[in-house]
């Protein structure tokens, strides 16, 4: 009788406690490692002995939401940046949005080549605006134009994408903008 009571007690009380302790044996080291990870990431950004940021061209996506620009993303491969977005269905109008921020951290002027457009012409006039200068990327007939732009050292530039359509567009378009730093 006494052994049956002990077996019942062990089944209902001791086994769950044993399983809980066994689970903690695996969970605690995992939590410990995960908590260490942000500390090591933060150490990479510390300024050590006066060493500053690398002299490079930084290209960041501005983000945000807009009526016709959706699913924005930017990729970097071997120093060439590719910004992609989907231009959704739209009525005839002019639409504009800040899309990219470029920071020239180099000590000298940098020249970048910027070009882009959609795969199919839709009659839309697609331009970019940098420092109040308008550059046509794609004409309404689909012709794409490449632009070389000089970036002053230590300056930050915001690129606006503007789409002007004189007739309603009833389908989505994939838009791609390429930014490449030119070597001297």
From TrEMBL:
Domain of life: Bacteria
Transmembrane spans: 12-34
Keyword field: Membrane, Transmembrane, Transmembrane helix
Protein name listed in UniProt: Uncharacterized protein
Organism of this sequence: candidate division WS6 bacterium GW2011_GWB1_33_6
């Amino acid at each position: 009788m006494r052994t049956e009571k002990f077996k019942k007690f062990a089944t209902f009380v001791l086994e769950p406690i044993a399983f809980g302790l066994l689970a903690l044996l695996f969970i605690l080291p995992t939590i410990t490692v995960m908590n260490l990870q942000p500390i090591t990431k933060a150490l990479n950004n510390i300024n050590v002995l006066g060493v500053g940021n690398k002299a490079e061209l930084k290209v960041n996506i501005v983000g945000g939401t807009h009526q016709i620009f959706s699913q924005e993303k930017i990729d970097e491969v071997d120093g060439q940046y590719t910004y992609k977005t989907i231009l959704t269905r739209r009525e005839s109008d002019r639409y504009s949005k800040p899309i990219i921020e470029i920071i020239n951290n180099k000590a000298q002027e940098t020249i970048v080549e910027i070009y882009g457009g959609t795969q199919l012409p839709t009659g839309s006039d697609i331009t970019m605006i940098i420092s109040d200068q308008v550059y046509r990327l794609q004409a309404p007939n689909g012709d794409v134009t490449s632009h070389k732009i000089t970036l002053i050292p230590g300056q930050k530039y915001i690129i606006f994408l503007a789409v002007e359509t004189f007739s309603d567009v009833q389908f989505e378009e994939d838009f791609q903008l390429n930014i490449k730093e030119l070597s001297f």
